[in-house]
Amino acid sequence: MSSFRWFRRSRRDDLSDEIQSHIDEKTDELVARGMSPAEAEREALRAFGNVTRVREAAVDVWRFESLLESVTTDVRYALRGLVQKPGFAIAVILTLALGVGANAVVFALVNAVVLRPLPYPDSDRIISISQRGHEGPDGGVLNELPYADWSQTTRSVESQSAYDPGQAVLQTPRGPARIPGVSTTPAYFGIFRVKPLLGRTFDES
User: pLDDT digits over 40-88, tens only?
Assistant: First the structure.
């Protein structure tokens, strides 16, 4: 039998003896008050509670202590090894830092692009359509004629709009300023449920 098993069995035996000691003490007290030994023992067990549950709770505590002790021992061993080999320690720390940093960057990108929903109502119902030729996607661009044919024949979407990103020059009191913008069809703002702060958006007219 290993020393650990012997130690664990010894602790269980000590716990059983301690529980039995409390029950016997309570039993003697009840017998002294005039109860019969059998009735006093039953009352002592009832007052003590579920013995099995107490034992299981103690075993859980011992398991946690054993795990904590094992982790502490491993950490001490690792620290001693790193102190004895500082060059290796620096290489390990840098490798971990680069790995954690790279994972953090990748997760931030995936979260922003894939996991986090778009900041629009019913964003899961918004799709982007592009055309594909024999040589693959055409840069996400859907030309005017394919869009016109598609918008007249499709029945699977509630509303559709075309847009073309671009830039414009705005004359300000401080001079001209280049601002990003898009050329769109009128339904564009309705799809994203965007309302202007002032005035209204344009329509078909």
Answer: 777 766 766 666 676 666 666 666 667 777 788 888 877 787 778 888 8
Question: Per the structure block, which two tokens stand in for 49?
Answer: 């509670």
Rounded Cα gap, residues 6 and 12, in angstroms:
10
| 3-state DSSP assignment of residue 19 | helix
Do 194 and 175 form a contact (C-beta atoms < 8 A)?
Answer: no
Residue type for position 37: P
- The structure tokens listed for 67 are 């795990």
- Which two three-digit tokens encode residue 75? 């950490």
Closest CA to 108 of 120, 116, 119: 116
Of 25, 58, 59, 57, give the one whose Cα is nearest residue 44: 25
Spacing of C-alpha 64 from chain mean position: 25
Pairing of strands 132-133, 136-137: antiparallel
Global pTM value: 0.41
Domain ranges for the chain, please list them.
Answer: 3-84, 123-192
The pLDDT tens digits of the residues spanning 21-34 come to: 767 777 777 777 77
DSSP-derived letter for residue 155 is -
